[in-house]
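TODO from last week: model DMT family transporter.
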Amino acid sequence: MLYILLAILSGVSVVLSRIVNFKLAEEIGTFQGTFFNYLTGFITSLIFFFLTKDYINISELSIPFYAYLGGTIGILVVLMFNYITPKVSSFSLSLLVFIGQLSIGIIIDYFSNNTISVGKILGGLLILLGLSYNIFIDKKAQETESLNIIE
């Protein structure tokens, strides 16, 4: 039950952070909003790091270079979401994020385990079809609504 609650809270935090980031970007600008997003995350990470007293000797670890690109990719994702959020419905955006995560998971599984999950691919395709259908229906409704306004 705890894991289900944590999964739900994680999903809620993703949606809330997207909304807060968009509002912040709307108020002070996309780049400044992204900067403060990462500054807040950095300060919070430092606080947790010092509170846990779990110190890691980094010189003993062999960390590949590409592992340090996570921050750069994160910045690009936040910038992209701040730009896309007002243009796409929350439902569609959440599904797009899910499809992206599923796709990356499939790619990681393939390169790390040399396996491809047919269930994940079929699930992703079904979600993509559902999203496409939903966008099609929304577009039809908007066209009908705009025709009704003109008349």
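Done. The two ends are 54 Å apart (CA to CA).
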